[in-house]
Design a protein that fits this description.
Layout: E1 8-11, H1 21-36, E2 40-45, H2 55-68, E3 74-77, H3 82-94, E4 98-104, E5 112-118, E6 124-129, E7 133-138, E8 146-150, E9 153-154, H4 156-166, E10 171-175, H5 182-192, E11 198-202, E12 205-206, H6 222-227, H7 232-241, H8 261-267, E13 278-279, H9 282-295, H10 298-304, H11 317-334, H12 338-346, H13 371-386, H14 393-407, H15 409-421, H16 429-436, H17 438-453
Bound molecules: glutamic acid.
């Protein structure tokens, strides 16, 4: 390895399933660390296990990282690098550091296979981990471990160390499930005369109940999160803080702020990664998502929602535009993800903007006020509205507030809004009235009056 003070990192996913949220976090930390130090970040696809690795997961890994804005300086694919591993395997054998061993096949004990084993001198390996400090592991029990199934079929430990050397990786940042692999890899690094990288093993991400994040692969897949309505920026921000403790920071930034990639790079500090497992908190992710959703422009927001859902309502296009804008505003306020929003639209949350909806007598009066009072208020509202020439939110407010000043705001505005929406929660009553028009407003108020008079 050349010694040029440059930082190089890598993420090395094995494409055996969709890219996991934990791998995405590891990729992000590798990326942030490299970029913060003016270094390079590589993606290395570890696909030597041809039985379990699939092309579609390779694509999924790349798409997931790119969707998050994590871009590689170079991409390497292990299945295309067999010759390099072969050369180093041969060298180990020639130098007496590894040997070919004829053994019974595990699958069929009548068959023999020629595996390559590493000659283990059974020493104690000691290395420093950024997060855990000094780690000491006795390698005696590892015995002469297998490093290749045959001279042209190298296994994980060998390919990792050969590649890390060849790519001049200075920092190995990976999940702490790899701590137990590190001694084998250091033995190989020493035997091959390579440079030992710095190690940073990230604690696992666990579910709020303390268990494994999810047994179902689809639940933890980055692209699934994106498909189910999370914005890449929100995921990125959440992943960036998943595993750092409460930080006091010098730059005046908080880990709870929404940051772009440049700010994330600036904020990242490898020494602030915490030792304990990181608990995945959906609420926090939702919070970030909401911040991102709020920032979207009308056009971008629209792109995320297939608003053909509203096409079934015959409306003039100018009104449709006005209504859709109000629905968007309300959706942005109330929901955290696009899938929640789509569900709301599907269950006809906003039907009242297009047609009269069912109302229940019990729900018409405000709080403890009586049905009799509600009836009086509604009748008065019909009179007020009938007299209005221009039907705008402002005009409605001016004349209705004159009345509410005398009898109470909630007493009047609750039955007003409920009459128009049939919902305990909806967009503002004045706004609904202005959108559906004077005739429809009076019609709906009269419908409620009739219910109360029954
Ligand atoms: N291919 C390994 C994995 O998917 C990563 C190896 C490493 O980071 O050293 O977990």
């Amino acid at each position: 390895m050349k010694n040029n003070n440059k930082i190089n990192t890598r993420i090395a996913p094995s494409p055996t399933g969709p890219l996991h949220i934990g791998t995405a976090r590891t990729a992000l930390y590798n990326y942030l660390y490299a970029k913060k130090n003016g270094g390079k970040f590589f993606i290395r696809i570890e696909d030597t296990d041809t039985k379990r690795c699939k092309k579609k997961f390779f694509r999924n890994a790349m798409d997931s990282m790119h969707a998050l804005g994590i871009f590689e300086d170079a991409l390497f694919v292990q299945s295309k690098r067999t010759e390099i591993y072969k050369k180093e395997l041969k060298r180990l054998i020639e130098e007496g550091k590894a040997y070919i061993s004829k053994e019974k096949s595990k699958k069929n004990d009548k068959k023999f296979v020629k595996v390559v084993r590493f000659k283990n001198h059974k020493k104690i390996i000691e290395f420093k981990d950024t997060i855990r400090g000094n780690i000491k592991i006795d390698t005696t029990e590892l015995g002469d471990f297998v490093i290749a199934r045959s001279i042209s079929d190298p296994l994980y430990h060998l390919t990792v160390v050969v590649d890390d050397e060849d790519m001049e990786i200075t920092d190995v940042i990976r999940g702490d499930d790899h701590i137990s692999n590190t001694p084998r890899q250091i033995l190989l690094i020493e035997a091959l005369g390579y440079t030992i990288p710095r190690y940073t093993h990230l604690p696992l991400i666990i579910s709020p109940d303390g268990g494994k994040l999810s047994k179902r692969k689809s639940d933890t897949s980055i692209l699934n999160y994106i498909d189910s309505g999370y914005l890449a920026g929100a995921l990125l921000n959440y992943l960036s803080i998943l595993g750092i403790g409460e930080t006091d920071n010098t730059k005046g930034q908080s880990k709870d702020e929404v940051k772009d990639m440049k700010q994330l790079i600036d904020f990242f500090d490898i020494n602030k990664l915490q030792k304990r497992s990181a608990t995945f908190d959906n609420k926090k992710l939702d919070w970030f998502n909401k911040q991102y959703i709020k920032k979207l422009s009308y056009i971008d927001f629209r792109k995320h929602l297939s608003f053909c859902l509203f096409k079934k309502y015959p409306l003039k296009s100018i009104i449709r535009k006005k209504i859709t804008t109000e629905i968007f505003k309300d959706l942005k306020e109330r929901y955290h993800t696009f899938s929640e929003m789509k569900d709301a639209v599907k269950i006809k949350e906003y039907d009242y903007l297009f047609k009269s909806t069912n109302k229940e007598a019990e729900k018409i009066p405000h709080n403890k006020s009586s049905k009799k009072d509600a009836l009086i208020h509604l009748k008065r509202l019909v009179e007020i509205i009938k007299d209005l020439d221009t039907f705008t939110v402002e005009n409605l407010k001016n004349s209705i507030y004159l009345y509410t000043d005398k009898v109470g705001v909630g007493e009047v505005l609750w039955p007003f809004r409920y009459s128009l929406s049939g919902k305990e929660r909806s967009i503002d009553g004045f706004l609904i009235a202005s959108l559906i028009g004077k005739k429809e407003t009076i019609k709906r108020l009269n419908e409620t009056i009739k219910i109360l008079e029954k």
